[in-house]
């Protein structure tokens, strides 16, 4: 071993010159030597000396000075405890405790070991002080040798004492990680050796050690007392985000050097990169971020020839109106300075006075004496303490960062800019005054700044949330002391200064010179008209290369629509009703109003050469203007099949893999490199408009009519994770995180999420007007930045505690869950449960399920076939930690009004859930393969089974909706396929009639004797052959009619969208008998709403019913099975479940249809024989 270590001698020598002792990573030790690591964790008191001895022996010939004690670090998450959770059972093994140092004891010398010798037999032994007994050294009274020697003449061996530094600190739980109303607990920690004076009061630390019980001094007639303390093995500083703080290591220094080398020619562009990492959740405010950065980093103190010292640290007061992001800057500054807000106080403990960290909680209405102390810290950079004999003056590197609202009126920034000396300030002030009312008032000024200070004028000046420097680098940049040398103004700064003098002259013309940006405010506010975002569809990008060549949505002829309409309503009417409806249709077709409406609709289509006549109407009237909650009326879900890969079957592994795959797909969409969709063998291109609204998108609640926001994907890369109703923002740059990085991040979030709290997420399940009012209140409470982070995220990941097992339970949990750990306005929510089952919940307003299914197919197929790159899986723990981005808990300030709204929303949501019924019917009798053998379309065949089940349930045929996509046209979405036809009506009627032979006997006979029975029966009675043939023939006729209508709908020539457009073209005072006819309303009262989507890696999907007494049926047709998700309102209490009953009717209908089709096939075969 010595020979192998020789080559590392220089590195080891340099390491131990800086570090007092070797560090042992427990998790690495567990992976390399699990047996010993387990023993070390279970009994560190016995195993740690063995490990230290092994280190000392191995390094004895390599390192001249023997290192001090080992420091055990990075304990597994399961061994991390809170102070308040420590119990007596913890005093048997290794553990880690996080907290804040609130008190530092004096450094003492502790006699650790002393050797004694027997004067008679010369036996020597060591006596060690025991912390359990107040470190008392128990002197032996007699020789301890095993021989006959019982001498009491014991003497101490001179020079045998071994002493170490000794210190106690007080560790308190971090208040931020406690539940509401919890009191932070504290515990004493013993530091020895190199750990002494390694932390300061106010530091957030992680202590690894063992829990021991220390007896207090024993006094006669006084109850014995003991105290639990932690014997520390290592202690590490942490910042508020939980990442261990590091010194300015060679890696960090190298990163600094590489960064500035890359920006050698454009140093101000490098500065802009740093500023884009300052408080990234706040958009814009470049000057404020620059001031914050300079204030936090500080400058160099200057001492002149006379000895007069000028401080280099500045202070900052930020004044602004409520909701402008002042508190966000304050919090971010506190994150960069872990001891922000701390002072000190003198306290007495154990007969000694010592300094203890204290917090400057309130700074308003302070006394003049206290104000003088603060002024001393601000001006003189010192803090004087004189109490109980303690007279000291502490040097402080103090920067005061304060924010306030203006008093009495709005703060006017122009007053600050006006200066009687510099006329340029007046020019800028006038410009701001003239343009302050416009939405893009600052774009021109920022453009001038960009052109003046950036080497590349074509690049965007400010990239919101483009966090290139991670939080660790920023923290070290802010906390590393500045050099002692005086600053110098480099010669290269002269051109910058010269250009600054010309800025004011360019500001006046800035507005004319500045080109419009695609995302002027970091997002686009969408109101339902696809044309408004047309400029985002770059023709040179692969995804949108067919957009300009797509055909327009056609306006069908009025005669064809009227004829087709009469065919579809016939099974829904009586003879008398049909006569009246036919007359109304003929009057509409031949009268003056019908052709006029047709011309108006055609004119509308012609006026939209780059869109469709229907898109805006459909998006607004069908979705954004609807005031019903989205969760039960708009949202739909996909239930993903379980992963076959072991690493992806846990909650964390499943979520991490889905995020890696999602980011890969999202980056293809954002960059436009995603190949466009095509349909059929002819590879007909489909419209790609929907993809713009998939990621970084969210529906925004507003009074009367909602909007939809899509944020700039080039500057918004973060993901928001929900856990226990709390939001966590995961910062990441353009480079996607790996599977290992995501697993570490998600494990950290699970660890720090804490208890379940009230969540604003449930507000998004409310009526849209109610939610709009609640959102307005949240903005007034100062939550603008938090809401923006949620709404602008790539997607939302929901980590639930629930562990549903059955398909019905999973469907319920995906469709609505408990309402708290969701944000239903988000376009994509990935949901992963505690048992690893997963799916997604999608908001339907601006895009349909087919585009979302392409995304789901990409991630599921890629993960299943392992074609998606999960990143480097060989990273060491240290390398992984260094690469992890910041995770920021998003705080939500809740006023009394908001809390009341949340309570009301929870009651409404729970009542709505209680009134809904969901059932998954999985039919394994047959599937796609058998249906094709019946010479039927699988989709049409299942639709006829639904018609038959509906006929049995309601006793009549009802209006049935099936969605057909029309994305072969520009901005096309869906058309309705009316599944209920005269052919389906006839088929359902004949199936429910009593047959010439009892159906039950037919079912029983079908089996081994079925061919013989059919042959014999055919010979005895040819009428039964006719009956089965009639049933099968009507079934095929109904399937063919359905397929025919689907082809018409796919060409956007169905009746529903055309009639909707005609009705919307009516002007005030106009009316048409056709639209007032009760049959017209009945024909679009969709008691059965259906849609078909099949994927081998889907276990189901679904949505809600369309009308109160209807059912929503989502189905999948697989090779040997058919699966239905049935959602509806619950029936009267005590009655059977409607959804379950309808599911049984579907199973029964499919079985009966199989018997009919197989009997027809067998009879035809027998007839030929």
From TrEMBL:
InterPro entries named in the record: Carn_acyl_trans, CAT-like_dom_sf, Cho/carn_acyl_trans, Cho/carn_acyl_trans_2, MCM, MCM_dom, MCM_OB, NA-bd_OB-fold
UniProt keyword Amino-acid biosynthesis present: no
SUPFAM superfamilies membership: CoA-dependent acyltransferases, Nucleic acid-binding proteins, P-loop containing nucleoside triphosphate hydrolases
Domain MCM C-terminal AAA(+) ATPase: 270-431
Pfam family, one: MCM_OB
Active-site residue list: 844
GO molecular function: acyltransferase activity; ATP binding; DNA binding
Keyword Ligase listed: no
Assigned keywords, A-Z: Acyltransferase, ATP-binding, DNA-binding, Nucleotide-binding, Transferase
SMART domains membership: MCM (SM00350)
Family named by the database record: Belongs to the MCM family.
Protein name: MCM C-terminal AAA(+) ATPase domain-containing protein
Species of the source: Aphanomyces astaci (Crayfish plague agent)
């Amino acid at each position: 071993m010595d020979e192998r270590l020789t080559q590392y001698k220089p590195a080891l020598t340099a390491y131990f010159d800086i570090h007092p002792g070797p560090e042992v990573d427990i998790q690495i030790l567990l992976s390399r030597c699990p047996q010993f690591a387990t023993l070390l964790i279970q009994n560190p008191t016995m195993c740690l000396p063995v490990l230290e001895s092994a280190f000392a022996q191995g390094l004895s010939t390599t390192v001249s000075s023997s290192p001090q004690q080992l420091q055990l670090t990075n304990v597994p998450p399961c061994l991390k405890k809170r102070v308040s959770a420590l119990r007596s059972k913890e005093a048997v093994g290794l553990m880690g405790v996080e907290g804040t140092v609130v008190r530092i004891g004096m450094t003492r010398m502790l006699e650790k070991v002393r050797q004694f010798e027997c004067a008679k037999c010369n036996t020597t032994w060591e006596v060690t002080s025991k912390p359990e007994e107040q470190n008392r050294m128990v002197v032996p009274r007699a020789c301890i040798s095993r021989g006959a020697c019982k001498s009491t003449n014991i003497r101490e061996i001179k020079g045998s004492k071994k002493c170490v530094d000794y210190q106690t600190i007080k560790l308190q739980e971090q208040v931020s990680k406690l539940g509401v109303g919890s009191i932070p607990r504290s515990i004493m920690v013993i530091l020895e050796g190199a750990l002494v004076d390694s932390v300061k009061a106010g530091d957030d630390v992680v202590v690894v050690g063992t829990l021991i019980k220390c007896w207090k001094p024993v006094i006669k007639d006084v109850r014995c007392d003991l105290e639990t303390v932690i014997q520390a093995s290592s202690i590490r500083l942490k910042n508020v985000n939980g990442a261990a703080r590091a010194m300015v290591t060679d890696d960090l220094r190298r990163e600094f050097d590489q960064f500035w080398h890359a920006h050698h020619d454009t140093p101000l562009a490098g500065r802009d990169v740093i500023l884009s990492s300052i408080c990234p959740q706040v958009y814009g405010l470049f000057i404020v971020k620059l001031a914050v950065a300079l204030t936090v980093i500080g400058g160099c103190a200057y001492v002149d020839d006379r000895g007069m010292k000028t401080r280099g640290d500045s202070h900052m007061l930020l004044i602004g109106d409520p909701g402008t992001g002042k508190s966000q800057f304050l919090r971010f500054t506190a994150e960069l300075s872990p001891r922000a807000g701390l002072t000190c106080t003198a306290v007495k403990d154990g007969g000694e006075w010592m300094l203890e960290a204290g917090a400057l909680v309130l700074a308003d209405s302070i006394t003049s004496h206290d104000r003088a102390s603060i002024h001393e810290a601000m001006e003189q950079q010192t803090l004087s303490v004189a109490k109980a004999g303690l007279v000291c003056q502490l040097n402080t590197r103090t920067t005061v960062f304060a924010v306030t609202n203006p008093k009495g009126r709005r703060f006017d920034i122009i007053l600050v800019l006006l200066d009687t000396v510099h006329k340029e300030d007046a020019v800028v002030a006038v410009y701001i005054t003239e343009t302050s009312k416009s939405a893009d008032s600052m774009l021109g000024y920022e453009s001038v700044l960009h052109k003046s200070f950036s080497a590349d004028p074509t690049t965007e000046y400010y990239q919101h949330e483009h966090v290139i420097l991670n939080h660790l680098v920023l923290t070290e940049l802010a906390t590393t002391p500045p050099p002692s040398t005086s600053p110098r103004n480099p010669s290269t700064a002269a051109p910058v200064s010269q250009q600054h003098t010309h800025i004011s002259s360019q500001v006046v013309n800035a507005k004319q010179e500045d080109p419009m940006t695609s995302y002027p405010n970091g997002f686009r506010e969408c109101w339902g008209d696809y044309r408004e975002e047309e400029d985002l569809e770059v023709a040179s990008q692969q995804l949108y290369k067919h957009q300009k060549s797509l055909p327009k949505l056609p306006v069908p002829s009025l005669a064809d629509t009227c004829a087709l309409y009469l065919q579809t309503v016939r099974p829904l009417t009586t003879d008398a009703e049909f006569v009246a409806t036919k007359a109304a249709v003929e009057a509409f077709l031949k009268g003056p109003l019908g052709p006029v409406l047709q011309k108006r609709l055609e004119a509308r289509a012609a006026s939209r050469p780059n869109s469709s006549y229907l898109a805006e109407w459909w998006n607004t009237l069908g979705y954004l203007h609807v005031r019903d909650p989205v969760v039960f009326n708009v949202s739909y879900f996909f239930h993903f099949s379980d992963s076959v890969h072991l690493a992806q079957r846990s909650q964390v592994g499943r979520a991490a893999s889905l995020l890696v795959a999602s980011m890969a797909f999202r980056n293809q969409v954002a960059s436009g490199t995603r190949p466009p969709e095509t349909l059929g063998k002819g590879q007909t291109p489909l419209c790609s408009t929907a993809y713009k609204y998939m990621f970084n998108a969210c529906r925004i609640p507003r009074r009367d009519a909602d909007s939809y926001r899509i944020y700039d994907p080039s500057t918004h890369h973060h993901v928001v994770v929900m856990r226990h109703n709390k939001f966590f923002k995961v910062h990441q740059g353009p480079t996607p995180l790996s599977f290992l990085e995501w697993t570490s991040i998600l494990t950290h979030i699970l660890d720090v999420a804490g208890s379940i709290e009230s969540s604003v997420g449930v507000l998004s399940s409310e009526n849209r007007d109610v939610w709009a009012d609640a959102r307005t209140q949240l903005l007034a409470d100062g939550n603008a930045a938090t809401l923006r982070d949620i709404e602008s995220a790539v997607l939302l990941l929901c980590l639930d505690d629930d562990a549903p097992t059955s398909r019905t339970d999973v469907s319920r949990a995906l469709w609505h869950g408990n309402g708290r750990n969701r944000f239903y306005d988000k376009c994509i929510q990935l949901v992963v449960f505690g048992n690893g089952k997963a799916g997604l919940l999608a908001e339907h307003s601006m895009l349909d399920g087919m585009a979302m299914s392409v995304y789901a197919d990409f991630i599921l197929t890629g993960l299943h076939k392992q074609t998606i790159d999960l990143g480097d899986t060989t990273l060491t723990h240290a390398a992984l930690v260094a690469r992890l981005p910041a995770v920021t808990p998003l705080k939500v300030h809740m006023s009394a009004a908001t809390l009341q709204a949340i309570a009301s929303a929870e009651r409404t949501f729970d009542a709505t859930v209680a009134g809904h019924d969901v059932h998954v019917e999985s039919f394994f009798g047959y599937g796609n393969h058998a249906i094709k053998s019946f010479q039927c379309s699988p989709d049409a065949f299942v639709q006829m089974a639904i018609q038959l089940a509906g006929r049995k349930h309601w006793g009549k045929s009802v209006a049935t909706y099936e969605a057909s996509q029309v994305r072969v046209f520009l901005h096309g979405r869906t058309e309705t396929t009316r599944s209920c036809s005269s052919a389906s009506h006839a088929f359902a009627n004949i199936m429910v009639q009593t047959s010439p032979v009892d159906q039950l006997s037919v079912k029983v006979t079908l089996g081994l004797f079925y061919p013989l029975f059919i042959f014999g029966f055919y010979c005895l009675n040819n009428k039964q052959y006719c009956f089965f043939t009639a049933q099968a023939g009507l079934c095929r006729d109904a399937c063919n009619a359905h397929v025919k209508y689907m082809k018409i709908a796919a060409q956007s020539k169905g009746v529903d969208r055309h009639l909707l457009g005609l009705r919307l073209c009516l002007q005030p005072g106009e009316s048409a008998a056709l639209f007032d006819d009760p049959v017209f309303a009945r024909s679009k009262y969709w008691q059965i709403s259906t849609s078909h989507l099949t994927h081998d890696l889907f276990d189901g999907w679904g949505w809600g019913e369309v009308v109160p007494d209807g059912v929503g049926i989502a189905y999948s047709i697989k090779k040997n099975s058919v699966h239905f998700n049935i959602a509806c309102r619950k029936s009267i209490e005590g009655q059977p479940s409607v959804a379950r009953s309808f599911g049984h009717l579907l199973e029964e209908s499919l079985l009966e249809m199989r018997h009919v089709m197989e009997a027809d096939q067998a009879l035809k075969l027998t007839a030929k024989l």
